Amino acid sequence: MAEAKVIESGGSPGASGSVDTRTIGAPVLAVENIVVKFGGVTAINDVSFDVREGEIRAIIGPNGAGKSSMLNVLNGFYKPQTGKIHFAGETFPSMDPHFAASHGIARTFQNIALFRGMSTLDNLMTGRMLKMNRNFFWQCLYFGPAQKEEMENRAHVEKVIDFLEIQPIRRTPVGRLPYGLQKRVELGRALAMDPDILLLDEPMAGMNVEEKEDMSRFIMDVNEEFGTTVILIEHDMGVVMDLSDRVVVLDYGVKIADGTPDEVRANQNVIDAYLGVSHD
Amino acid sequence: MELIYAVLVQPFVDMYLDPLIFIETVIKGLMAGVLYSLVALGFVLIFKASGVFNFAQGVMALFAALTLTGIMEYLPDGLPKWLSVIVALGATVVIMILLAVIIERVVLRPLVNQELIILFMATLGLSYVLEGAGDLMWGSDVKVLDIGLPTDIWDIGGVYVEQLDVTAAVAAGSLVAVLAIFFTKTRIGRALRAVADDHQAALSVGISLQQIWVIVWSVAGIVALVAGIMWGSKSGVQFSLSLIALKALPVLILGGFTSIPGAIIGGLIIGLGEKVVEVFWYSVHGGAVENWFAFMLALAFLMFRPQGLFGDKIIERV
Amino acid sequence: MLYRETGQFKRNYAADQQLFPIFQDKILLAAILVVALAVIPFVINDYWSKAILLPFMVYALVALGLNILVGYCGQISLGTGGFMAVGAYSSYKLCTAFPELNLIFVIIFSGGCTAAVGVLFGLPSLRIKGFYLAVATLAAQFFLIWMFNKVPWFYNYEMSQITAPPREVFGFLVSGPQAEPAAQYLFVLGFIIVFTWIALNLVRGRIGRGWMSIRDMDIAAELLGIRPLQTKLLAFAVSSFYIGMGGAIIFHIWLGTVEATEAFDILQSFFVLFAIIIGGLGSVLGSFLGAAFMALMPVGLKVVLVDWIGMVPVTAKHIEFMLVGSLIIFFLIKEPHGLARMWQITKEKLRLWPFPY
């Protein structure tokens, strides 16, 4: 049951005065009372929030607040001690990585998790792995159904390559690429999965202004053109405020604010814990 | 049914019926275990200090023993025994230190930032080089190693104990004590532990990796020498020494790669287990299980407790 | 100048992803095949077959198998000798139990048996990695060799040394003492061609990518939906299949008689591992180059050191050990991707030759 909302400009994507015509729907993913502990350290302490279809949701907070851990929970890499995850119409105590991947959740990592021994093209093709299932016998033969499947998926991947403008580095082993390009290739690999939900862990870390603008444009385009829901961890406040529809703020594993960027920006707790006050 | 009886009941009955043989087997096993521990000790040292899994440790023991016997053959016959032993030992120690310097220079330094698996394979290559070099320099026939260690057998109430084994146990024990003190109390020991944790970080506080590695590999070389002497005195110096040393790997898995007491206890367990199973379960397996028992035991540990009895737990972070 | 790609444009993805996209490479491959199929069978003699070509080919097959496991999937295995023994002994049992079965099927089924054993001993790889896994595979190595020595069923209750019975394929004797070198050579060559082609297909498709992703970062692979369990076990299965076939061929065609503790001991495991390190991990070409090197170097050394210089063979053996060990270290330092990468670099230089840049 989706409610169509036309979001007016101002604090939302395309904030230079254009009207935003995306449809933000019902929550597609929600976490409830999640607790994650490692030995004596509580990384996430009773956090709940939801993510609506088609929105860009940011998770912000100081270092060590538990943001990456939250993403790991959503991905299935961490299993929370207590709490529930609502996804795909069901409720789970924890996420299974394979289930997440096969139901449209894709992810990028803070420290790039590309396959260094492979080229850009191969890395992107691994993103198509779930869509490729010609059996072993055909794979041995290659010619025939396996090749057809390979070419179909290659066509998909080429679209992602065009979208991200990484044609020249198709065959380059990713280990040799500069950092900014590696981040883009990693985004490409996540996009190759045709995800419904994209989890981005500091996609702009270590980038200069131009690279950040490129990356922001890609994220916005993905969200607008394909309707992909984006959950985004980011430290650059300008990016967060411009891109996101709603923001969750974590501090020491506890949620201290949840709302639109404007609401969060004005929240005193957030200012104390994280944003600080500008001194003119 | 018969098989179950043979596996689960008969061996314990035999142990009860013939306690002397059981005790002797236990002692023999423990002594063999001590010898494994000696080789494992060298592994642990190098692993603790550099994260390198030195596959060549066993061959280093062989090489050290070969060098020792070779030098002793070389010395003039007229020399009194104790003098030739001291000279040969001294010369071998010098050679092992030299070897450590060469290894650091030629193998370790160029590979300093590579993954550990590459370093492991390099030590595999190193073991071949040392094997060939030792054979080339001193010949590959079986040699007698005699540096004057006591070789008699004591008879303790019907149980035979070889003096050589006891000497080995004492040597191992002293080595462990010395090394433990070295690691925890001295400045160099601390530096070694720092290097083991993180090469780059150690570099950044001014620890000279090269010096540390030369020291570690020298100490490991001396430990290898002791192991080689014990093994060689027992069964002659020959190629199979290096294969026996492969068994130090299961010892490490049992004891944990980073634990010195673990190396000792792991060695004892392996040695004991091997011998007891070999003797008392003979009717079930027909002999020669010593070839694989240690490895199967290690495999079981790897499945259920990969860090061994005393090692550090391995945590992986994304 | 001769070796250039200009003008060789690809019009579709299928052409872009073919095995030998550059025309000159195709010519080279054709030339090699012509020599292999049409020239060698007529000039081959017993010495060349037994000392040079057969060892090269069987070790190439085994190296291909091990490279799939170690080079493409990143799982270290020191149990190669043991798996070769499984191939040899299972082919022996199949031969003696089903005398009418064509040798081709015997070898393939032996590969299958070895694949099953490989999966069994590969189960630990789900929990352990790196040199821990190496030690676990040592368990396989020592246990299997012990088993083939001790359990009389494997050698039909006779001597623990097994001898290959003579068998004909398409009317030509390929095993047993009367077999012609040319027939044996072509028989093995057939296996090489077919299974190399299969290996090439596997590694360039989704399965190969799955293996490589596990090798490079298995955590990330899992989050993409790749199943580490199945992928690793498949690598063990395929790898052991090849290694088992190699063992069976060594038994039937090359050696004729084997004894488990001599022919398939741990030195064999090291031998094949060295072959793929020197040749190039993660490369089909590398498997061939490395196998050629390891199989032919002892022969070359013997000719140089013993025949020409006059050393004692034992000394030559020691030098061989030192040389192999030093080369391993050298390759790991200078060119971890082995001869295959050196060949690639040569080709890149050839693009410019004779111009300097």
Task: List the main descriptive attributes of the protein structure presented here.
heterotrimer, A: 280 residues, alpha/beta, 36% helix, globular, B: mainly alpha, 74% helix
Characterise this structure.
The complex is a heterotrimer of chains A (280), B (318) and C (357). Chain A is α/β, with parallel strands linked by helices. Helix content of chain A is 36%, strand content 22%. Chain A is built from 10 helices and 10 strands. In chain A, α3 runs parallel beside α6 and α5 crosses α6. Residues 1-17 of chain A have low confidence and may be disordered. Chain B is mainly α and 318 residues long. Chain B is built from 15 helices and 2 strands. Chain B has helices at 2-8, 10-17, 19-50, 57-74, 81-108, 116-138, 163-185, 187-197, 199-204, 209-235, 240-246, 248-255, 260-280, 282-285, 293-304; strands at residues 153-156, 159-162. In chain B, α3 (19-50) packs antiparallel against α13. The longest helix of chain B has 32 residues, at 19-50. Chain C is an all-alpha fold. Helix content of chain C is 73%, strand content 3%. Chain C is built from 14 helices and 4 strands. In chain C, the strands form 2 sheets. Chain C has a two-stranded antiparallel ribbon. In chain C, a hairpin with a 2-residue loop joins β2 and β3 (172-173). The termini of chain C are close together. The model of chain C has no long low-confidence stretch (mean pLDDT 86). The chains are: A alpha/beta (280), B mainly alpha (318), C mainly alpha (357). The B-C interface holds B 53, 106-107, 110-111, 114, 116-118, 120-122, 124-133, 135-136, 140, 243, 246, 249-250, 253, 285-289, 291-292, 295-296, 298-299, 302-303, 306, 316, 318 and C 76, 124, 127-128, 130-132, 134-136, 138-139, 142-143, 145-146, 149-150, 219, 266, 270, 273-274, 277, 314-315, 318-329, 332-333, 336.
Task: Considering residues with a beta carbon less than 8 A from a beta carbon on another chain, report the largest interface and each chain's count.
Answer: B-C, 46 and 41 residues
**Sheet of most strands of chain A:** 6 strands, mixed
The SSE string of chain B, one letter per element, is: HHHHHHEEHHHHHHHHH
CA(first)-CA(last) distance of chain B: 51 Å
Strand ordering within the main sheet of chain B: 1-2
Low-confidence stretches of chain A: 1-17
- Mean of all residue-level pLDDT scores of chain A: 85
- The total count of helices of chain A amounts to 10
Assembly context of the chains = heterotrimer
Shape of chain B: globular
- SS class of chain B: mainly alpha
- Strands ordered across the widest β-sheet of chain A: 6-7-8-3-9-10
Helix content of chain A: 25-40%
Helical content band of chain B:
over 70%
The number of E-state strands of chain B comes to 2
Proportion of residues in extended strands of chain A: 15-25%
Radius of gyration of chain A: 19 Å
How do the SSEs of chain A run, as a string of H and E?
Answer: EEEHEEHEHHHHEHEHEEHH
Largest sheet of chain B: 2 strands, antiparallel
